[in-house]
């Protein structure tokens, strides 16, 4: 049953004393009419009187009457965000994608599922993650006149397995079980999504196969070991450039071949519909908690949200809640590798062109012939030549801004957060932190900046040792 | 007629940084064949029949089409050009030519490897087009291109269609564009008189299959199994019932592909009622793993003939 209270999105004056339910707000599209409805759920176990519930019906035609005209449906019933998204996959997978979407909608209304998911997120993953005021980082960016922004870190690094990836993995594993699939496959770049998937497969007793580029396996050996220890089979992918994009292609091929018994836990907001939407919804808890925590801490909303962008899942997870709040700036930071002009980077939204990769129409790094280019970043998790279609859309409509930082800048930020706050961030996260150098001097005094601390950096020490001379 | 008119020109294959281009004039550097030889090219290009036409003719004689697939540029474009001629003269009714792509989702290890080798050699779209411009006039059977969507998008759908039409390509197969997304593609294909072939698979629900067969042009491509391309030891018996189902839904010709690698398979599938049989990986493997291109072409000829012989 949906809670009776209706909360218009963006109303800051509501006092929420108890933790929000971690269940995701399902975006329900009625299969026949295409009507879009956002529904929320109160979790009976939390005893909450109020939950974030918004019921608005929007049709494609009436999109202009929607609270924020010009945003359209995110996504529409074909899985498109404007011109981006869609389902560009071999025909063999089409039915599985439809089945997946139907299961997702059904579960978004299933109380038992929501309860189970919420319980796991709380007791197993360790949610809710803190919103931490980074005192010394704030001091560091304070200007000589004493003015400067206030910097908060959303501590996704404190989740079980050390990154935000687990939010999505847990929900999708539960979904797979509901679908009766006993075999799970996943792709992984840095290994965090692979570890998260292996973790949930161990937790739920599912067979687990992780595809990882041979090159990535070398630079993230710790994560490879962890996956195996957790009972997963890690398959090295040698084709193409032997990195994340090739692991993703191989995972898709496995899914095409084994679709009847297998669920593919895609790790980011990329891929064919319904993945970009589903993965976003499973990570949206990050933004929801942030809204509530911001209210508690300073009685308002964040002014700027900053997150690193590889495929874009942690960023979408933080941003989604606030997309309709026009006064909240959304800043995504990609990897510029050796520099934007070096040809060795992964700055898809800055330097890419629109095309189709792994099932979705989005910006991607390609050459003159339409072949996909091998990207480069010191951080394996950002080393993806594509980006989630919703990010492409948010960029095109000007709702979100995207920048990039080099390997060198990321390493500096990696060191800096360790020294200033005693938190060793993932190299991916370090990209978001590095952008603060450019961002903070421009912000008015007292601006509230929330950086998504998407992961911890233990997995990166071997790489750091090579580059940092301490 | 076509051969005689070509004999008067000397062809100098020039290896440029962007692939192989053929020049008509000894002193020139990279003039495309098409620009200086267009009148002859367009005359002979029109001689290749439409794909649906091929199937009608075969049906009249109760014959089943033999459709081989090879990857352009593996081992190199020159060999591909010769392979196309060998396939044509060995009895192919239609030839599928794959454009090598960096991330071929629907392809198994054999075709993946062929694509990687072709790309490493510097094969690109312009190179393939130049090669086709020269060889298509010499072929009696039509060519259908097999490509993923991104290379099409890169050029723009309209431009892509007109380029391939210009060199005499008659059909197109794009494995990563589902029915819902084919509208634009189909519109442009129709406009340029290219037949866009759509795929249906064992996991496609019946209602959806009906939509696919209705929209498909040239023929309906039935994927024989749940999976990617690659030879299999046997053809799934599901193919028989799927063929029946499809034929209840349409009178268009149906060709079966994926996994078919031996004369026995070819015979079996034809026996189940297929109007065409597609053989890819087995042929690609042969060409790619041959000790030399010449060896490969010889083996190609005998293998093709053996497959063709298994067909009525």
TrEMBL record, chain A:
A GO CC term assigned to this protein in UniProt: cytoplasm
Enzymatic reactions: (1S,2R)-1-C-(indol-3-yl)glycerol 3-phosphate + L-serine = D-glyceraldehyde 3-phosphate + L-tryptophan + H2O
Cofactor: pyridoxal 5'-phosphate
CDD domains in alphabetical order: Trp-synth_B
EC number: 4.2.1.20
Pathway the protein contributes to: Amino-acid biosynthesis; L-tryptophan biosynthesis; L-tryptophan from chorismate: step 5/5
InterPro entries: Trp_synth_b_CS, Trp_synth_beta, Trp_synth_beta/beta-like, TrpB-like_PALP
Keywords linked to the UniProt accession: Amino-acid biosynthesis, Aromatic amino acid biosynthesis, Lyase, Pyridoxal phosphate, Tryptophan biosynthesis
One Gene Ontology MF term: tryptophan synthase activity
Record domain Tryptophan synthase beta chain-like PALP: where: 128-455
Keyword ATP-binding included in the entry's annotation: no
HAMAP family in the record: Trp_synth_beta
Protein's name in the database: Tryptophan synthase
Native source species: Zingiber officinale (Ginger)
Classification of source organism: Eukaryota, Viridiplantae, Streptophyta, Embryophyta, Tracheophyta
């Amino acid at each position: 049953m949906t809670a009776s209270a209706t909360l218009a999105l963006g109303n800051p004056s509501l006092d929420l004393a108890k933790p929000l339910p971690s269940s995701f707000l399902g975006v329900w599209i009625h299969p026949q009419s295409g009507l879009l409805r956002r529904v929320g759920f109160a979790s009976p176990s939390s005893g909450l009187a109020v939950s974030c519930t918004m019921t608005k019906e929007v049709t494609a035609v009436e999109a202009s009457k929607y609270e924020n005209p010009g945003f359209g449906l995110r996504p529409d019933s074909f899985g498109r965000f404007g011109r981006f998204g869609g389902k560009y996959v071999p025909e063999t997978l089409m039915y599985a994608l439809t089945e997946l979407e139907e299961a997702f909608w059904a579960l978004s209304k299933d109380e038992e599922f929501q309860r189970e998911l919420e319980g796991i997120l709380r007791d197993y993953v360790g949610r809710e993650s803190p919103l931490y005021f980074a005192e010394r980082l704030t001091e560091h960016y304070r200007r000589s006149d004493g003015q400067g922004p206030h910097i908060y870190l959303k501590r996704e690094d404190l989740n079980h397995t050390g990154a935000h990836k687990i939010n999505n993995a847990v929900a999708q594993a539960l979904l797979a079980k509901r679908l009766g699939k006993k075999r799970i496959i996943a792709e992984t770049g840095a290994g965090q999504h692979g570890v998260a998937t292996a973790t949930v497969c161990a937790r739920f007793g599912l067979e687990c196969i992780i595809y990882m580029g041979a090159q990535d396996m070398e630079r993230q050996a710790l994560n490879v070991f962890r996956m195996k220890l957790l009972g997963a089979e890690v398959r090295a992918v040698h084709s193409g450039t032997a990195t994340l994009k090739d692991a993703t292609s191989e995972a898709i091929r496995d899914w095409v071949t084994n679709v009847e018994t297998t669920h593919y836990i895609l790790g980011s907001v990329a891929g064919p519909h319904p993945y970009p939407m589903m993965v976003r919804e499973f990570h949206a808890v990050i933004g929801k908690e942030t809204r509530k925590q911001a209210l508690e801490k300073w009685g308002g909303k964040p002014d700027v949200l900053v997150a690193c962008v590889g495929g874009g899942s942690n960023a979408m997870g933080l941003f989604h809640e606030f997309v309709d709040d026009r006064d909240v700036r959304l800043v995504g930071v990609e990897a510029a590798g050796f520099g934007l002009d070096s040809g060795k980077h992964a700055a898809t939204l800055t330097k890419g062109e629109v095309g189709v990769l792994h099932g979705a129409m989005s910006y991607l790094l390609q050459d003159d012939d339409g072949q996909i280019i091998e990207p480069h970043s010191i951080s394996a998790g950002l080393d993806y030549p594509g980006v989630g279609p919703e990010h492409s859309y948010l960029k095109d409509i000007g709702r979100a801004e995207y920048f990039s930082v080099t390997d060198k800048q990321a390493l500096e930020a990696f060191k800096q957060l360790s020294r200033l706050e005693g938190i060793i961030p993932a190299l991916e996260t370090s990209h978001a932190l590095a952008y603060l150098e450019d961002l903070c001097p421009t912000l008015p005094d007292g601006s509230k900046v929330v950086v998504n601390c998407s992961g911890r950096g233990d997995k990166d020490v071997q790489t750091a040792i090579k580059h940092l001379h301490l | 007629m076509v051969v005689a008119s070509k004999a008067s020109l000397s062809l100098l294959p020039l290896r440029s940084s962007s692939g192989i281009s053929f020049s008509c004039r000894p002193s020139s550097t990279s003039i495309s064949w098409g620009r200086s030889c267009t009148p002859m090219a367009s005359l002979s290009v029109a001689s290749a029949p439409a794909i649906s036409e091929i199937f009608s003719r075969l049906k009249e004689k109760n014959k089943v089409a033999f459709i081989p697939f090879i990857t352009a540029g593996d081992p190199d474009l020159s060999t591909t050009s010769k392979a196309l001629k060998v396939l044509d003269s060995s009895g192919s009714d239609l030839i599928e030519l794959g454009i090598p792509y960096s991330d071929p989702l629907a392809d198994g290890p054999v075709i993946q490897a062929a694509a990687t080798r072709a790309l490493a050699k510097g094969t690109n779209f312009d190179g393939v087009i130049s090669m086709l411009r020269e060889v298509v006039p010499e072929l009696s059977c039509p060519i259908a291109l097999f490509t993923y969507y991104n290379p099409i998008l890169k050029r723009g759908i309209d431009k892509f269609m007109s380029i391939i039409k210009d060199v005499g390509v008659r059909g197109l197969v794009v494995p990563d564009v589902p029915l819902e997304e084919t509208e634009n593609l189909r519109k442009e294909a129709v406009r340029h008189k290219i037949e866009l072939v759509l795929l249906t698979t064992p996991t496609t629900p019946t209602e959806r299959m009906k939509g696919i067969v209705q929209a498909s042009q040239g023929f309906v491509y039935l994927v024989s199994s749940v999976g990617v391309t690659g030879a299999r030891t046997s053809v799934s018996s599901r193919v028989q019932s799927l063929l029946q189902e499809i034929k209840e839904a349409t009178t268009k010709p149906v060709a079966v592909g994926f996994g078919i690698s031996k004369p026995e398979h070819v015979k079996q599938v034809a026996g189940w009622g297929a109007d065409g049989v597609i053989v890819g990986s087995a042929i690609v493997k042969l060409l790619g793993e041959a000790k030399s291109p010449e060896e490969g072409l010889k083996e190609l000829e005998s293998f093709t003939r053996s497959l063709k012989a298994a067909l009525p």
